[in-house]
Amino acid sequence: MTATVTDTAAKQGVTKAAPAASATYTPPPGRLGNLTPVQEAALAKLTAELRAEGAYVEARHDDATLLRFLRARKFDVPKAKEMFLACEKWRKEFGGKGVDELVRTFQFTELHEVDKYYPQFYHNMDKSGRPIYIERIGNLNVKALYACTSQERLLQQLVVEYESFLTSRLPACSAAVGHPVETSLTILDLGGVSLSNFIRVKDYVAAATHIGQNYYPECMGAFYIINAPWAFTAIWAAIKPWLDEVTVKKVHILGGPSAYKPELLSQIDKTALPKEFGGECSCAGGCSLSDVGPWNPSGGKSSPTASALTEKMVLEQPAHGQVLSA
């Protein structure tokens, strides 16, 4: 699924942090500021080997980036290195022009049409400052979707969004809450989904999952599947083999509103959550197209404004460990 659910820019974002929010922050295990001696040695070894092979790109790589690959491979340096080099090879080859050129030139002109049939969007932050990613697969109209776009372009848009997530959204969220933010909170809404529709897009789902797990590891913090119908047992059986063990542990499958609203509101301020999920946000033109958040405060049309929400979060930032994260 595209909801599969840092670099120099992320570090630059963190330097603008509000001291009041960072005073009580403790980095999660395996992150900068909370590494064991063994983990520090693994990071140093991986960095040295990549530099020696000319595979370390100063403008794009840093300790936080390498740690994502190390965590994904449980700090096994040879395995993390293999994963990292495979990612670099893929970056050069993806789409026939490479990821960097794709980001520079790609225009997803069909966004508004695609949104009608397969809404996928970022919207505000959760209580720990993570960007919220929402996908509504229950709205999926496969025939109409592929009349206005293609699987190839959907995957290209997915990659462009991943790049924006790392270089724009995470740094902005980090600056807003005053400590490094490295993952997202994902909501996958299955309300109205049919098994037949899922089967028709399973190739795209498999490809998107592969990209997320292998080339953008350790970006998912929590994953909520809501409005899961009885048929989801079959869908989950099809999806689960594509996911690694770490990812599966981050997935929380919930039923209807009585099950998911309390859980979502325990993680997300009601002013940041769209009304259809039990919150109070109602963006002009629809939340799915507003792109509201600290990465785009002037572009968001939600109520309250993104800046007001950010101020509220800084004042009410929970202590580390209170927010679900895997």
List keywords for this structure.
PI/PC_transfer; Phosphatidylinositol Transfer Protein Sec14p; alpha/beta; CRAL/TRIO_N_dom_sf; 48% helix; 326 residues; CRAL/TRIO_N_dom; disordered C terminus; CRAL-TRIO domain-containing protein
What does this structure look like?
The chain has helices at 8-14, 19-22, 37-52, 63-72, 77-93, 99-105, 111-117, 142-148, 151-177, 195-200, 202-215, 232-239, 245-249, 257-267, 306-316, and strands spanning 120-125, 131-136, 184-189, 220-226, 251-253. α3 (37-52) packs across α4 (63-72), α3 (37-52) packs across α5 (77-93) and α4 (63-72) packs across α5 (77-93). 48% of the residues lie in helices and 9% in strands. With 326 residues, the protein is an alpha/beta fold. The chain has 15 helices and five strands. A hairpin with a 5-residue loop joins β1 and β2. It has a single domain, classed as CRAL-TRIO lipid binding domain (Phosphatidylinositol Transfer Protein Sec14p, 3-Layer(aba) Sandwich). It has a five-stranded mixed sheet with strand order 1-2-3-4-5. Residues 15-25 have a biased composition (Low complexity). InterPro entries: CRAL-TRIO_dom, CRAL-TRIO_dom_sf, CRAL/TRIO_N_dom, CRAL/TRIO_N_dom_sf, PI/PC_transfer. This is CRAL-TRIO domain-containing protein. Residues 1-32 are annotated as: Disordered. Residues 110-285 form the CRAL-TRIO domain.
Ordered list of secondary-structure elements with their pairings:
Layout: H1 8-14, H2 19-22, H3 37-52, H4 63-72, H5 77-93, H6 99-105, H7 111-117, E1 120-125, E2 131-136, H8 142-148, H9 151-177, E3 184-189, H10 195-200, H11 202-215, E4 220-226, H12 232-239, H13 245-249, E5 251-253, H14 257-267, H15 306-316
Parallel strand pairs: 2-3, 3-4, 4-5
Antiparallel strand pairs: 1-2
